[in-house]
C-alpha cells in the first residue's frame, strides 16, 4: 500500500467518521450551542475539539460517559491526570471525609506534611511545596533557578510544553519562523507574550547535547538553568537518548546552572519515582502535577536543600491562596499512600505490555507507517514512518491525517483518546482491565483495516 493511497483513504475515513460523530453527539452539539456565556464554549481552549466539544456526564473506573449516554474506555485521562481512574474508592473516601471538615483555611494541615514526606521518599528530594497546576510549579521552578543563580536566561527544548506562563510559552507548537534546526529561534507561542521575555528563553533541539553545549558556550555564566521533560511528551513520546540526561546534568553543573525536570506528565506515571528514579539522573528541582492529586488540582515542586532552601529562608516566597489546599491534600495523600501502592505498578506494567505488544502486532500485520512507544502507564502510536527524536522530526514526519482518522474511528467505537490524538499519549489507570485494552486493540484494528483498504 503506497502512502498516497493511504492518504486518499484517510480523507474518506475522516469524512465518514465525522458524519458518524455528529449522529452520536446530538446533545453535545446542543450544549455547545447553549453555552453562549462560556468563551468558545469550553473552560480551556484545549477542550475545543473539531467538529465540536464533547460534553461529559460522569466517569466510573476506567470509563467515561458523555451527555449523549455513550460509554468510552478512557485513555484521555483528563490530559494524563487520571492515573487513579474515575471515582476511585480511596479518593472518594478521602475527599468526602475532608469536605465535611471544611475545605480551605490557607493554613497548613496534617495531610500536607504526610504528602511531602511521601514525595521525599519517592523522589529523594528533601524539600517540597505545593500549588494547584503544572503551570504554577514550573513557574516557581523558573523563578527559583533565576533567584538561585542571579541569572536571567533559561533554556528549554523546542516543542516542549511546560504550562502557560510567559517564560515557557516559547517555541511550543509554533510552526513558523523557527530558524535553523540546530539553533532554533525563540518564538512566542501566542500574542500577549512580550518579546523581551521571549528573548530570555533560549531554545535547543531535544536529544542534541552538542547544540546545548554550544548555547552554553555562547552565553558563559548567563544561563540560570534548563527546564525539560525528561521524556518529551508533546510530540508523541520522545525518550532521551543514552547519555542525554547525564550530559545535561554535567553541562548545568559545570556552568553553575540548575536542572529542572518537568515531571508534570511523567511523575508517578512512569513508576513510583517518575522519570527521576527511572533514569537515575537527579535534577535540582522536580515539578509534579496532573496525576499526583488523584484527579484534584494539585501540583508539587521538590528539590535540593540548597535550592528549595531559598524558600525556607524566605529569600524566594513561593505563595498561593490555595497552595496545599486541604481537599487537594486529602486526595493526594490517598493517591500516594492507598492508590499507588507497589503492586499497582505491577498491574500497570502488565496491562501496558498487553497494550503495547497488541498495538505493535497490528502495526506490523497491516504494515502501518507508524510505530508504538510504551513507557510506564503511558504510550502512543506515532504515525510516522521514521523514528522521531525531536520537534523538527515531528513537524516533518508526523502524519496528522492518520492520527485524526484513527482517533475518530476509535472514538466512535467507544475508545476516548486525547483529542485529537495529535501529539498526545494514552494513559492507563489503575482501574483499567484487560477487557479495556482489548477494546482499544479491536478499534485500532478497525482503523488498520480501513486505512489499508481491507474494508470500509
Ligand atoms: C509537561 C507539562 N508541563 C506543564 C503542564 C502545565 O500543566 P497545567 O495544565 O496543570 O498548568 C503540562 C500540561 O499539559 C505539561 O504537559
What does this structure look like?
The chain is of the alpha/beta class and 456 residues long. The protein has two domains: 3-74 and 341-451, Aspartate Aminotransferase, domain 1; 89-339, Type I PLP-dependent aspartate aminotransferase-like (Major domain) (Aspartate Aminotransferase, domain 2). The chain has helices at residues 3-24, 26-34, 77-80, 89-100, 110-123, 134-149, 195-198, 209-218, 244-254, 274-279, 305-312, 326-339, 342-365, 391-397, 400-412, 434-451; strands at residues 56-60, 63-66, 71-74, 127-131, 153-157, 201-204, 223-228, 258-262, 285-288, 299-303, 371-375, 378-382, 415-416, 426-427. The strands form three sheets. The protein has a seven-stranded mixed beta sheet with strand order 4-10-9-8-7-5-6, sandwiched between helices. α10 (274-279) links the parallel β8 (258-262) and β9 (285-288). The longest helix is centred in the C-terminal third of the chain and has 24 residues, at 342-365. The model has no long low-confidence stretch (mean pLDDT 95). It binds pyridoxal-5'-phosphate.
Amino acid at each position: 500500500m503506497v502512502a498516497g493511497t493511504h492518504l486518499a483513504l484517510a480523507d474518506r475515513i475522516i469524512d465518514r467518521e465525522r458524519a458518524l460523530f455528529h449522529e452520536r453527539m446530538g446533545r453535545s452539539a446542543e450544549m455547545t450551542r447553549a453555552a453562549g456565556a462560556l468563551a468558545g464554549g469550553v473552560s480551556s481552549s484545549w477542550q475545543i475539539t473539531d467538529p465540536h466539544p464533547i460534553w461529559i456526564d460522569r466517569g466510573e473506573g476506567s470509563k467515561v460517559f458523555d451527555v449523549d449516554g455513550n460509554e468510552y474506555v478512557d485513555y484521555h485521562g483528563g490530559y494524563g491526570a487520571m492515573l487513579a481512574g474515575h471515582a476511585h474508592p480511596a479518593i472518594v473516601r478521602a475527599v468526602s471525609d475532608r469536605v465535611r471538615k471544611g475545605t480551605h483555611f490557607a493554613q497548613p494541615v496534617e495531610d500536607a506534611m504526610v504528602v511531602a514526606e511521601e514525595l521525599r521518599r519517592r523522589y529523594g528530594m528533601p524539600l517540597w511545596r505545593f500549588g494547584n497546576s503544572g503551570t504554577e510549579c514550573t513557574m516557581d521552578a523558573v523563578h527559583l533557578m533565576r533567584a538561585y543563580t542571579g541569572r536571567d536566561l533559561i533554556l528549554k527544548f523546542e516543542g516542549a510544553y511546560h504550562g502557560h506562563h510567559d517564560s515557557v510559552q516559547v517555541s511550543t507548537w509554533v510552526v513558523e519562523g523557527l530558524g535553523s534546526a540546530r539553533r532554533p529561534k525563540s518564538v512566542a507561542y501566542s500574542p500577549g507574550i512580550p518579546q523581551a521575555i521571549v528573548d530570555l528563553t533560549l531554545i535547543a533541539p531535544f536529544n542534541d547535547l552538542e547544540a546545548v553545549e554550544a548555547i552554553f558556550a555562547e552565553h558563559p555564566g548567563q544561563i540560570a538553568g534548563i527546564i525539560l521533560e525528561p521524556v518529551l511528551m508533546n510530540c508523541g513520546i520522545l525518550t532521551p537518548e543514552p547519555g542525554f540526561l547525564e550530559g545535561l546534568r554535567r553541562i548545568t553543573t559545570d556552568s553553575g546552572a540548575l536542572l529542572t525536570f518537568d515531571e508534570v506528565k511523567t511523575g508517578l506515571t512512569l513508576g513510583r519515582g517518575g522519570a527521576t528514579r527511572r533514569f537515575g539522573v537527579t535534577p535540582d528541582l522536580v515539578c509534579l502535577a496532573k496525576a499526583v492529586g488523584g484527579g484534584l488540582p494539585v501540583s508539587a515542586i521538590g528539590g535540593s536543600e540548597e535550592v528549595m532552601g531559598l524558600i525556607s529562608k524566605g529569600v524566594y516566597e513561593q505563595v498561593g491562596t490555595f497552595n496545599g489546599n486541604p481537599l487537594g491534600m486529602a486526595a493526594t495523600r490517598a493517591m500516594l499512600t492507598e492508590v499507588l501502592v507497589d503492586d499497582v505498578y505491577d498491574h500497570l506494567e502488565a496491562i501496558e505490555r498487553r497494550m503495547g505488544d497488541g498495538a505493535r502486532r497490528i502495526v506490523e500485520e497491516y504494515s502501518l507507517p507508524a510505530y508504538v512507544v510504551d513507557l510506564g502507564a503511558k504510550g502512543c502510536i506515532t504515525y510516522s514512518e521514521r523514528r522521531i527524536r525531536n520537534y523538527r522530526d515531528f513537524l516533518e514526519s508526523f502524519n496528522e491525517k492518520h492520527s485524526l482518522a484513527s482517533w475518530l474511528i476509535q472514538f466512535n467505537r467507544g475508545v476516548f483518546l486525547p483529542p485529537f490524538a495529535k501529539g498526545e499519549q494514552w494513559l492507563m489507570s489503575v482501574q483499567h482491565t484487560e477487557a479495556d485494552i482489548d477494546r482499544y486493540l479491536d478499534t485500532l484494528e478497525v482503523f488498520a483495516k480501513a486505512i489499508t483498504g481491507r474494508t470500509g
